[in-house]
Structures are given as structure tokens and as C-alpha cells.
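Appendix B: complex inputs.
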Amino acid sequence: MNLAAAILVDGLIDASWLFIVAVGLTLVFGVLNILNFAHGSLYAVGAYAAASAAGWYYGGQIGPAFFGYFVMLGAALLVAVAIGPLLERGVLRLFYRRDEVVLVLVTYALFLILEDATKLIWGVDPYYAYEPYGLLGNVSLFGLSYVGYDFALIALALVTGLLLWLGLNRTITGKVILAVIHDRDVSGAMGVNVNRVFVLAFTFGVFLAALGGAFTAPKISVQPGISISVILLSFAVVVIGGLGSVEGAAIAALIVGLARSAAIHLMPSAELFIVYLVMALVLALRPEGLFQRTTLRKI
Amino acid sequence: MGARLGTLAAALAAFAALALLGRMLPNWLVLVATLAFAKGLVALGLVVLMRGGLVSFGQGIFFCTGAYAAGLAMRSLGLSDAVLLVALGGVAALVLGLIIAPLLAGYRGIFFATLTLALSMIAYGILDKTYSLGGSDGINLHAPSFLGYRPPSSQAVSYALFVLTSLTTVVAAALCRIHFDSLRGLLSLAARDNEIRVEYLGASVRRVSGVNFAIAALLGGVGGALSALSLGHIDPDFTFWTTSGEFVFLAILSGYASVAAVFFASLIVELVRSFSSQYFPNTWQGALGIFLLLVILFLPQGLGSLVQRRRRASAKPVRVAEPVPAESGQ
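Resulting structure:
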């Protein structure tokens, strides 16, 4: 019983940040048709930026402790605004008419470049931003003690998911984005400024990656290499959920989070293995992922 | 028929030149070239797949299978003959390829890429934790023998391995060239452009893709076994996604216009890596990324298209219709 509860809670916590990162990846794929390998690096940049910002904020005793969360949010926003349009307009735009797989390779190149860029900017020593982690105290649940911050992460994921859903389904801009996801060419013909939607969606995807990075930064030591495990996990989440599906990303993040925490509790050696096993099983049964709509085949 | 003979003659000449050159080059360069050619074989397999419109992001699984088959045969069965071990590596990878091919048959594009990636990462996860196979530390291998010949020094071993790798490389390259120009090879290009048309013309896309996949698996295994012998070490990183990514990188870099371009690209990348990882440990990957972006931007058909352009410019003025890129659907 205790074990099951522990698996469940740990899985939920894991799923929360995974969802935030993966939903950005799936949104970018939906709109731009790019499976962005560099997404993990953007997560890392967000984590570094937030760790630096939090270090600056708490190191200087600049304001009330709780305001530090907004500083981290601001760091993620700054990363998105600075990098998103630059990458989309400066690089990706040049490759849009190419094959999907070539585009993956383009983002792989971006991943290599961003990895070294972060090393140049932040060095190779780890950063720690532990102050925000302890701020919310501890919570006791099922006789186990959890850090309150982890539950705040779950809340953040819920809020992000809800806002994203409302934004996509209840606003004009959101509906325009959905139209572009559905058919790029026809929306263009109907007068949608597709380029603007691309910049917007990509920047928002970068923001989600950076947000995930910023708010997991207090839980981990921020150092080179964190991007790789993140991209591997969010890749699996997105493929399991169905490329481009927001609901799918949510369900898949839950599945992956629970599978991972079950593996960690029951069979620690199978942690990464189990994620890809789930992915292979889902793909074998539903080739397009859990939530992929059937698409017309154009000849 | 004449073209085939020409290809074989060119292959023989290339092999003779390589074997001679290997005598003169310093030992470290011979080692780098061996590894580059071995990896080039895997990339060549990927090129075969790519001509049919499929890209595998998990080619490392065959590379790794070949390496582990050779390594385990050496450790457990006491085999030490390099030719036998390389053949064994190739066969093991081919068998694995034939087993997983039906699973992959229905997938195209990004789904094929991600599913192959998933399979290779599963293999990584298994090997990483299987301590009887060395776990994440891997296994060290000793020097192989060559058809009864036991090289007296480590330099002689690396030269002998270089000769074996070169021979395998030119044979594989020549056979691939012949395959590319054959009916089935040309059907691959047609399937890449439009599968439905090919089916209506009466050919089986499934069979074409299956043959390409098997060739790629075989070449991956052979390349893996050769790499294992030349490195003297195998570990689960052989099937890690970065290794697979490197093969895709090589294949895109070289394109499918020229077979030889694959090995040139592989040699360049391996040289750049060994220099820059020594002198610029923190920036060389970024430089590689920029290089890759520039190649994709300015040479969409890869380095091989340079050769083809020149050949076409000097050939008799027969216009060969460029394949029209399919309209991107979404």
C-alpha cells in the first residue's frame, strides 16, 4: 500500500515537469512539423538561466523570498523571447520545404551548437539553486514525507495544461493556431499569416521547455548533460501521446512518469529501458500514438 | 555489364591504392582511417535505406549487434580470426534485422525513425544493465589473427585490420553501386518519390524496403565488428542514440549520389573529431553542428552531389530529369 502510494506520488511529480516540457515539443511539431531535438537544450538553457537568476536574487537578498518564483518565471520568459524568434526566423525558416527527417537533423545540429554555447556561457561546473526548493516546507502524505515544492510543480503543470487548452480552444489566436496545425496551406489561403503563427508557436514551445527547466532547476544540479535525458524522455512522451496532440502529451506524461517511478521503486536498473519499452509497445499497437487523428494521404 | 566491370576495376584499384597508402601513413592515421571506414560502412547501409525514403535513427542497434557478436565470440568461444568474427558480426546483425523487419514494415517517415530509435535505446538499456556482458563498462578485446597470420606487433595488427577494413569497404561500396544501378535499386528511388505509383506499376514497395533494410543491417553489423576489433573495446554506447545520430549525420553529409562520398565524409568527420576533441574539447561539437547546417542548406543532396555535378557537366548532353520533390502535404 505504502509502496503503491509512493509510486503514484513520485510518478505524478515526475509527470508534471515532463508534461510541461513535452507539451512544448508536441506543440512545435503540430504547428511547424518539426520534431525538435534541440528542445532538451532549451530546457537546459532555461534551467541555467533560472539557476543564475535565483542565485542572483537570493544571493543579494533583493526582495521577499516568494518573489523568487517570479524571477524564475521571468528567466524562462526571457530565454523564450531571446532564443525563440532567433532560431525560427534565423535558422529553421530556411529549411521548411525539406523532408521531416532532414528537419530532425537540422535541430540535431542546433542541439550540438546549443550544448556548446551553454558550456561557453555557464562553464562546465554545476549550478545549484536550492533556496526555492525548501521554501514551501514539507508535506506528509501516506506516512511519507514529501517536499512541498514538488506539489507546487504538479499545480504548475495543471495550470499550464489548462491555460494551454483554453488558449488553443477559446481564443482567436488559439483557433488560428489549430487551423494551421490542421492544414497549413489552406489556412494560408484563407488569409492566416502562417509565418507569424510559426514564430509564435515556436517561441511558445521554447518558453514551455525553458519553464520546465526553470522550475526543475531547484530540484537538480544544473550541469552539462541534463538536456540529453530530458530530450529522450520528452521524445518518448510525445511519440506515445501522438505527435502534435496536447491531450496525448498529458496522458503520455502520466504513463511515462508512473512507469518510471514504478521502475525506480521496483527495479531501478530498468528506468530508461521501461520508457522505451512502453514507447515501442504503444507504437506497435497504435503506429501513430495514442491520440493521433487520422490524416488524409495526399497523392 | 561494362559499367559493372568498370565499378569492380575501380574498386580493385582503390583497394590497391589504400593498401599501399596504409604502409606509408603513420600508425595513428591508419587507426583513424580504419575506424572511419568501419563507421562509413554503417552509414553506407543508411544511405541504402535513405534512397528508399526511410531513415533509421537507431542504426546503432546493428552496429552494436555486430560488435557484441564479434566480441562475445572472441571472449566465450575463443575465436580470434578477424575475417570470421567480422562475418559473424554481419550475420548476427542480419538475423536481428530479419527478426525486427516485420515489426517495422508498416512505418514511414518520422515514425520509422522514432521506432528504430526506441528499439536501439531498449537494446542500450538492456546491455547497460546486463553485467554478464560487461554492463556499462563493456568488454575489452585482444588482438585478432588474420587467416592464420598472427601480426607480430600492435602496429602490424592495426595495418592488417586496416587492409581488411579497406577490402570490406571497397567490396561493399562496389556491390552497393551495382545494387543502386540495378532495377531494384532504381525502384527504391521511385518508392521514395511515391509509393502508391510504384505499387500501381506492379512492384512491391514492401519487398524493396525489406531488401534495403536487410542490406543496411548487414552493413551495420560488419561495420560494428570492424570497429570493435579496431577499438579493442565494446560497450553499450555502440547503440546509444548519439552513435545512431552520427550515422545519420554521415549519411546526410554524403548524400546518395556517390558511394565513395560516404567514406570521404566519414574520414573527414573522424579526422576533425580526433583533432578538435583534443584541441577544442568544448566547442568542436558546436562547430560540427554549424558545418552540418551549412551542408544541409547549401548541398541538399550531400557532398556526393559535387562529384555528380562535375560528372554531369562533362558528360554528353543527355538531360536527366531531376526528380521533382514531392509536395509537402501538411
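Strands of chain A lie at 138-141, 144-147.
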